[in-house]
Design brief:
By secondary structure, the chain is an alpha/beta fold. The chain contains 16 helices and 20 strands. Strands 1, 2, 3, 4, 5, 6, 17 and 18 form an 8-stranded mixed β-sheet that branches. Bound molecules: 3-acetylpyridine adenine dinucleotide (N01).
Length: 531
């Protein structure tokens, strides 16, 4: 569709969970909106991350929209943790059911957005050269959508197939009879490795840092179980909204250190058996106290040693450090996959990758010839997707310049100098340390209420104040510093991207955050200037 010279109330970038929900909310206000999406379909993260084994590690009944009770009643999830194809089907269903597609332009990347102070409008330019204008510019680009492919010498010379888990092809990839290398052992790799190993002739896993992972214990979702939740869906949602991470972790209020060894182990065993990320809810102090955390870390290390036959391989797979400080992974048969004769673990911590050659990967003086290299090397998280667009606010100032030393925002939703710009699940909001879908809905609801409030008063411009932003940044850091999170080289801190400023980006604590946002709105958008 030709979009030249079109003007809207709002332009939204991205048609994943956030963009679709935002569009629905804007329509509800009677505002005009256009969504631009780089992909050839809706779905965002779930459109791009199609690697084998991709599935969400928040339970499907909680990783879903709640804005329509009819939708949450009628959609049937088939597994405890939904697979990527199922989540993508769900998002396509939502796009159809709420007739969203007619306002979405696919295959179109937004290149720049410039604020015109005289008109209080954003001019948005797409990569095919079209421009549109809008009163409000809303970034719904997700936190993990800008892939990271490390600049390993010789990368371009590889003659085989190169893939990235975050940009997986749409056509099926056949690994049978192939020698495959996977670089990286984060959440994506840990899900993909067991399935690639089952198909490939030989799999080489290049590991720099071993990761903590707990079994997902995925299973088909029973009809009775699903009916029971749906009978009182609000109760499940309410429980999630009171949890630090925004989903039902069945948190234990006790300290890991107040129990004797047997009682503590019983709690960890129960969590291990029930599976998934609620392992971190075993005790209240796991992410605050090193000694408490060590009891959980030791438990997982012991499990890994029991699962892996070769003690040398088990040692390499056993992580040091703090469990949960980097994102805890959840897996299906990850560690036992290394017992297969066709899987080799290559330690690149002691001997880093020297080069990629035409035929494979060279490290530690050895050459590993492969047909396929899978980069499971993660993302330029949180700021990457925002700074990829050339966003210019008041006085032509670039967001890239403003955030050169790290992101600064008010509530993760707005940033000084960029009026009428909203970010959904931006740095400074709970985002990646919460259940993304409810966090997205909380943001889209808040933005919609704010725009409705402005409409009712005939207001044209909203911008955070410097005082509010400074205080919020200080608060985000203070909360993070009271935990163990800043103590390791995670992507939460930008530590995975060479040269990226080291700033802890998510806000910790979903319930406190929601309360703060509600208070700001109730006080007439305290911390913002409006006009
Ligand atoms: O990426 P990662 P991911 N040379 O950054 C390694 C979400 N997610 O795509 O740790 C060699 O975690 C790097 O090694 P190191 C979830 O929030 C969710 O797996 O830096 N290796 C690491 O092993 C997750 O946290 C789900 O030493 C290099 C790996 O690549 C986030 O997405 C599923 C390297 C990157 O791991 C990102 O996960 C999947 C180099 N130069 C993802 N550079 C679920 O919901 C990087 N590495 C289940």
């Amino acid at each position: 569709m030709a979009t030249s010279d079109r003007s809207y109330d709002a332009v939204v970038v991205g048609a994943g969970f956030a963009g679709l929900c935002m569009l629905h909310r804007l329509r509800g206000l009677g505002l005009t909106a256009r969504v631009f999406e780089a992909g050839s379909g809706v779905g965002g993260t779930w459109f791009w991350n199609r690697y084998p084994g991709a599935r969400c590690d928040v339970e499907s009944l909680e990783y879903s929209y709640q804005f329509s009770d009819e939708l949450q009643q009628e959609w049937e999830w088939t597994e405890r943790y939904a697979s990527q194809p199922e989540i993508l089907r769900y998002l396509n269903h939502v796009a159809d059911r709420f007739d969203l597609r007619r306002d979405v332009t696919l295959n179109t990347r937004v290149a720049s957005a410039v604020f015109d102070e005289s008109a209080d409008r954003w001019t948005v330019r797409t990569d095919d050269g079209d421009t549109v204008t809008a009163r409000f510019f809303i970034m719904a680009t997700g936190c993990l959508s800008s892939t990271n492919t490390p600049a390993i010498p010789g990368r371009e010379s590889f003659a085989g197939t190169t893939l990235h888990t975050g940009r997986w092809p749409h056509e099926p990839v056949d690994f049978s009879g192939k020698r495959v290398a996977v670089i990286g052992t984060g959440s994506s790799a840990i899900q993909a490795i067991p399935l690639i190993a089952a198909e490939a002739d030989h799999l080489y896993v290049f590991q720099r840092t071993a990761n903590f992972s707990v079994p997902a214990q995925n299973r088909p979702l029973g009809a009775d179980e699903q009916r029971a939740v749906k009978r009182d869906y609000a109760a499940l949602r309410a429980r999630g909204s009171q949890m630090a991470f925004g989903f039902d972790t069945r948190s234990n209020e006790r300290s890991a250190l107040e129990l004797d060894d047997d009682a503590r182990r019983a709690e960890y065993e129960a969590r291990w058996a029930s599976g998934g990320l609620p392992f971190l809810g075993s005790f209240a102090d796991l992410l605050f106290d090193r000694a408490a955390n060590a009891t959980a870390a030791d438990f997982i290390r012991e499990k890994i040693r029991a699962l892996v036959d070769d003690p040398k391989v088990a040692d390499l797979l056993t992580p040091s450090g703090i469990v949960g400080c980097k994102r805890l992974c959840s897996d299906t048969d990850y560690f036992s996959t290394f017992n297969r004769p066709n899987v080799t673990l290559v330690d690149i911590a002691s001997a880093p990758i020297e080069a990629i050659t035409a035929t494979g990967i060279r490290t530690g003086g050895a050459q590993y010839d492969v047909d396929v290299i899978v980069f499971a090397t993660g993302f330029d998280a949180m700021t990457g997707p925002l700074l990829r667009v050339d966003i210019r606010g008041r006085g032509g100032r670039a967001l890239r310049d403003k955030w050169a030393e790290g992101p600064r925002s008010y509530l993760g939703l707005a940033t000084v100098g960029f009026p009428n710009l909203f970010v959904i699940t931006g740095p400074g909001s709970p985002s990646v340390l919460s259940n993304m879908v409810p966090s997205i809905e909380q943001h889209t609801n808040w933005i919609a209420a704010c725009l409705g409030w402005m409409e009712a008063r005939g207001l044209r411009r909203i911008e955070a104040t410097s005082e509010a932003e400074d205080a919020w940044v200080a608060h985000v850091n203070e909360v993070a510093d009271s935990t163990l999170y800043p103590s390791c080289n995670s992507w939460y801190l930008g530590a995975n991207i060479p040269g990226k400023p080291r700033v802890f980006m998510p806000y910790l604590g979903y319930p406190a955050y929601v309360q703060k946002c509600d208070e700001v709105a109730a006080r007439g958008y305290e911390g913002f200037t409006v006009g």
